[in-house]
Amino acid sequence: MTRHYFSFLALGDSYTIGENEPLYDSFPYQLVQLLRAKGWHIHAPEIVARTGWTTGELAAHLLHTHLADHYDMVTLLAGVNNQYRGLSLEDYKADFEFLLKKALHYSGEKPKHVFVLSIPDWSATPHAEGSDIVKVAAEIDSFNRVNAELAAQYHVHYLDITPGTRKVDEDLSLVSSDGLHLSGKIYADWAQKLAGILFELDSLKG
C-alpha cells in the first residue's frame, strides 16, 4: 500500500515566511517538525507568502499561480500590511473572504482542515516607536474582528495569536533583530498551538 504523505499549504505574508529568521524557524516549518516527531509522514510545507503582501496582493498572486489540487491542511494569516498601509476594512473583508474560499477549495472543501491565524500586533515592537500605538492596536483589533467573523461563518479553525504578540515589549527575545518582525521563539508557540489542535483531529493524521 502506498503511504500517504500529509500536505500543508501556508498562505500569508512576512509572518508566514518568518521574515529575518531562518526558514526552519518559521511557524510552518516548526509545525512540520512537531508533527514528524509524533510519527506523522508529512512533506515540507508549501508556502505562498511574501513580505509586504496585502490580502489583495496575495489574492492576485493566487489567481496566477498553479498549485496542487488538494492539501491536507491550509493556514491563512494575512492583513497586517492592509493595516500598515491604511487600507479599508471593507476591502480587507472582501479580499479575506476570497482568500478563505480559496483556502477551503485547496483543502477539498473541508473546513476542519483550514486554520485562520489572527493578525499580530506590531505596535509593541521597537519599530513602532514614534507611531500612534493605541491607534495601531485598535486598527489591528478591527481587522481581527473581520477575520474572526469570517472564520466562524465558514466554520474553520481560528487561532488568536495576537495577545502573545502584544507582550514582545516585555520580552525582546520575541522580536527579530530588525526590531519589527517576530522571532522563532514566538513562531514556536504558534506551531505548538496548531499541533495541539491537529493531534485531536484523527481525520488529519497522515
UniProtKB/TrEMBL annotation:
This protein's UniProt keywords: Hydrolase
InterPro entries (UniProt xref): SGNH_hydro, SGNH_hydro_sf
SGNH hydrolase-type esterase domain: residues covered: 10-187
UniProt KW Hydrolase keyword: yes
Short name of one Pfam family: Lipase_GDSL_2
Superkingdom of this protein's organism: Bacteria
Molecular functions per Gene Ontology: hydrolase activity, acting on ester bonds
Name under which the protein is recorded: SGNH/GDSL hydrolase family protein
Record organism: Deminuibacter soli
Lineage: Bacteria, Pseudomonadati, Bacteroidota, Chitinophagia, Chitinophagales
